[in-house]
Amino acid sequence: MAAAGVILIDGGALEGGGQILRNAAALSCLLGQPITVNNIRAGRSNPGLRPQHLTGLQLISQLCGGKLSGVNVGSTEITFHPGPIKAGSYTADTKTAGSICLLMQAALPCLLFANERTQLSLRGGTNAEMAPQVDYTMMVFQPIAEKFGMKFECSVKRRGYYPKGGGEVVTTSHPVKSLTAVELIDRGNVTNIFGRAFVAGVLPIKVAHTMAQSAERLLRVGNAGLAIKIEALKEPEQSAVGTGTGIILVAETSTGCLLAGSALGKKGVPAEKVGADAAQMLIDNMKHGGCVDEYLQDQLILLMALARGKSRVLCGPITLHTETAIHVAKLLTQAKFNREKLSDMSNIIECEGIGLENTQV
Ligand SMILES: Nc1ncnc2c1ncn2[C@@H]1O[C@H](COP(=O)(O)OP(=O)(O)OP(=O)(O)O)[C@@H](O)[C@H]1O
Questions:
Q1: For the residues 44-56, what does the mean pLDDT come to?
Q2: Residues 299, 258: contact at Cβ < 8 Å?
Q3: Is 136 annotated as a binding residue?
């Protein structure tokens, strides 16, 4: 049981992963609502806080001078008492290949409600498994988040990969008075596909070319005339730590939707397969006819809950991550969500947001 005035959140609900914790902590910070999260990551084979989650919580707590208890690696329960969000310059380091983008996912919404612009210097992995690659955050999340009024700049100083980490990203966030609801319900037609296939460290550029060619071959099937431009590159030595490889592909539509497919290389997995996996993910996301891909879906829920007015987003099949993000938003805000099922492959998520106001600007 949580103390009086503290909302208890079951971290093992639905997806039962780190996202519950990030969304709950961000909303707690934004609303000034103390929380206890128990059963942390109970849905994972290694439950409890991992360095990425712990660093994310500490970062949010720093931004608002909050009080955190229970934050050590492996902990399955934390309590967070937030304070007022303060602009400034902050650093956070997962000290592992823990995803920098997931630190951003936790912290950036909070900084929209700071008194001035804020700089974050974040260290960890830039292209990590089970998380957005930094290229996804910049090429897909950022332009769509801008439609809600979320403004930030993001500069990749150094890339870092599993297992070494060591990447660095600097962001500058700009405060808003409030976010605006967004309608993304017209997919339009795919006008072009662009992408980036990279290698870093000891890997030869040939691997990047192979990934790009294999992705393009698959994307051309049934799309002969489509403009496809996938850059193949080797990261300059000074701008990457360790060895890594991967690919991100983005389809742009006539109505401004952005859908992605991505994959990271692993020892023993041929480059052809990495390229084809990313292409197949993109093809699947183009097939369902939604305006967002399977990952952007859950990443927009927090913004929809905070925005003023009714947002509507046409999606493919609703993911468990999205269900979980909605569940947490409902526990902590008065946002009203509604789901309209158009078919097994097609749904509209509707949200009447709370129109949170930044009283500091
Ligand atoms: N390939 C991808 N492209 C873009 N975003 C991704 C991709 N894979 C995962 N994500 C996003 O990363 C987040 C992962 O959340 P999740 O709770 O699974 O991870 P986590 O914090 O690392 O915790 P855990 O280790 O418990 O899984 C989600 O917002 C999801 O949309």
A1: 96
A2: no
A3: no
Antiparallel, parallel or unpaired: β 118-124 and 89-93: parallel
**Predicted confidence (pLDDT) per residue in 203-214, tens digit:** 999 999 999 999
Cα 126 from Cα 128, distance rounded (Å): 6
Q: Whose CA is nearest to atom 5 of ligand 1?
A: 132
> What are 32-42's pLDDT values in tens digits?
999 999 999 99
Is residue 53 flagged as an active site residue? no
The neighbouring-strand residues paired with 195 are 230, 249
Would you tell me how many other CB atoms lie within 10 Å of the CB of residue 317? 16
Identity of the amino acid at 353 = G
Rounded Cα distance between 193 and 40, Å, is 38
Average pLDDT for residues 300-323, to the nearest whole number?
98
Tokens of 29: 């910070």
Return the residue whose CA atom lies nearest to atom 10 of ligand 1.
Answer: 131
Backbone phi, psi, residue 191, to 5°: -100, -30
Residue 141 CB–ligand 1 contact under 6 Å: no
The interface pTM score, or ipTM, of the predicted complex is 0.98
Instruction: Exactly one of 53, 81, 321, 327 is catalytic; name it.
Output: 321
Q: Decide: 19 in ligand 1 pocket, CB within 6 A.
A: yes
Q: Which atom of ligand 1 is nearest to the CA of 262?
A: 1
223 — pLDDT class (breaks 50, 70, 90): confident
Q: Taking CA 322 as the corner, what is the angle to CA 342 and CA 83, rounded to the nearest 5 degrees?
A: 140
Instruction: Look at residues 282, 254, 111 and name the one whose alpha carbon lies nearest to residue 189.
Output: 254
> How far is ligand 1, taken at its centre, from the CA of residue 322, in Å?
11
Per residue in 121-163, pLDDT tens? 999 999 999 999 999 999 999 999 999 999 999 999 999 999 9
Say if strands 7-10 and 35-38 run parallel, antiparallel, or are unpaired: parallel
- Residue 162 marked in a binding site: no
Which of the listed residues 19, 94, 140, 320 should we mutate to test ligand 1's pocket, taking the one with most ligand atoms within 8 A of CB?
19
Q: Could you tell me if the CB of 17 is within 6 A of ligand 1?
A: yes
